[in-house]
Write a structure and sequence with these properties.
Elements: E1 11-13, E2 17-19, E3 23-25, H1 41-51, E4 57-59, E5 63-64, E6 76-77, H2 84-94, E7 100-106, E8 121-122, E9 140-141, H3 144-164, E10 168-173, H4 178-183, H5 198-201, H6 203-216, E11 222-227, H7 238-251, E12 255-259, H8 275-280, H9 285-291, E13 299-302, H10 308-317, E14 322-325, H11 327-331, H12 335-341, H13 357-362, H14 365-378, H15 389-409
Parallel strand pairs: 3-4, 3-14, 4-7, 5-6, 5-7, 7-10, 8-9, 10-11, 11-12, 12-13, 13-14
Antiparallel strand pairs: 1-2
Helix pairs in contact: 1-2, 1-14, 3-6, 14-15
Length: 410
């Protein structure tokens, strides 16, 4: 008799690691580095709390590979200037309770606030739009020498993550960051080998994967976070996304996480989701069902899941192999244990707004409010679901104001 798979079922990742269950803590921006962009005690405590909360796999918030290119002021950076002992402590805490912990590696490209960079870099000199022009400077197109240097930065960071005790790495090629910018025909208008055809636009991602694989060896898990689509006119779409998955699998990728959107169209937090999508809970489940026709490695969908029933249904349907959770874990770090214990468990997230849409967008309220919850957990406090949107906005302004001033002084 075949036993039905559930979120509690184990999962083998290519014979390299075995996950104790199918709950996948997806990356969230934590903003918990110190002034040197090393992990803080708060960040280490946060991941220890999550590890004991029951998820099978924790993926870190984006760790930048270049400290001159930060997407946010308090991003963690892993490079030759990093305090490696703090990364070792982070990996140790996050791998308690039989938990796997994979480091997400990233470069923001042009998604850098203007108080952090006067001239960010990107595949092409195409500015961000949709109301973001005032907060983000127009980027400069990367030279080929710079592109190859960034590839090596990814590989160096992956090898160091392995040495520090992280049990895998994930390449962030979604949400409008640099790798996603290369994939997008809208953002990548190059006429050399790095732009134009899909083969050329995916070259940057493929070279990063190959360099990382060479650096970490054949038996260390390497994953990719990929957009199903950017949901942007002229951007990266589903047809191209399927072809990228095929190419990654041919190269030996171990796991693919699906999301979508970017700063200009934040679909990853449910912006513009249809009523039918919200009812099924998963924002990208329809795409996942198409992708499973060509999948040979585990597929994770992140975004929208709120109930154990919907998660188990998605697993049992074969649409996904793991359930990606992000914001729910910022409100309940023990959520994984509760979901596994009861098929009736549900978590509800608040609708956040100051009542001023422009202010909500400018402060990225759907992200920063959750960062404030992570900060509380990192301090050993309980999350605060009733934290007022205005309180969060004021905290964001206070934090960014001080950091912007500090950046100008440096």
């Amino acid at each position: 008799m075949t036993i039905a798979l559930t979120i509690a079922s184990q999962l083998d990742i290519g014979g390299k690691v075995s996950l104790k269950n199918r709950l996948f803590k997806s990356a969230m921006s934590e903003q918990l580095s110190d002034k040197r962009n090393d992990p803080t005690e708060q960040l280490i405590r946060l991941y220890g709390t999550w590890a004991n909360g029951g998820a099978g796999l924790l993926v870190t918030g984006n760790v930048m590979v270049d400290r001159s290119a930060l997407g946010e002021p308090r991003n963690v950076v892993l490079d030759a200037q990093s305090d490696i002992s703090k990364f070792e402590a982070w990996a140790k805490a996050a791998s308690e309770n039989g938990t796997q912990v994979w480091m997400q590696l990233n470069h923001p490209g042009k998604q850098v606030p203007n108080f952090l960079s006067k001239e960010p870099v990107a595949p092409s000199a195409v500015p961000l739009g949709n109301g973001l022009e005032g907060g983000f400077n127009c980027p400069r197109a990367l030279t080929e020498v710079e592109i190859l240097s960034i590839v090596e930065q990814f590989a160096w960071a992956a090898a160091k993550a392995k040495a520090c005790g992280f049990t895998g790495v994930q390449i962030h090629s979604a949400h409008g960051y640099l790798v996603n910018q290369f994939l997008s025909p809208h953002h990548n208008r190059r006429e050399d080998q790095w732009g134009g055809s899909l083969e050329n636009r995916m070259r940057f991602l493929m070279e990063i994967y190959r360099a990382i694989r060479l650096a970490v060896g054949d038996h260390f898990p390497v994953a990719v976070k990929l957009n199903s689509a950017d949901f942007q006119k002229g951007g990266f779409g589903e047809v191209d996304s399927i072809e990228v998955i095929k190419a990654l699998q041919n190269e030996g990728i171990d796991l693919i996480e699906i999301s979508g959107g970017n700063y200009e169209n934040p679909s990853m937090v449910g912006s513009g989701a249809s009523e039918s999508t919200l009812k099924r809970e998963a924002y990208f489940l329809e795409y996942a069902e198409k992708a499973q026709n060509i999948m040979s490695v585990p597929l994770v969908v992140t975004g929208g899941f709120r109930s154990a029933k919907a998660m188990n249904s998605a697993i049992q349907s074969g649409a996904v192999d793991m359930i990606g959770l992000a914001r729910p874990l910022a409100l309940d770090p023990s959520l994984a244990n509760k979901l596994i214990a009861s098929d009736d468990h549900v978590i509800h997230l608040p609708k956040l707004s100051t009542g001023i849409k422009a202010l909500d967008a400018m402060t990225m309220l759907d992200i920063t409010w959750y960062e404030h919850q992570l900060e509380r957990i990192g301090k050993g406090k309980q999350a605060k679901p009733n934290l007022a949107a205005w309180t969060s906005v004021l905290k964001t302004f206070a934090s960014l104001g001080a950091l912007a001033f500090q950046k100008r002084r440096v």
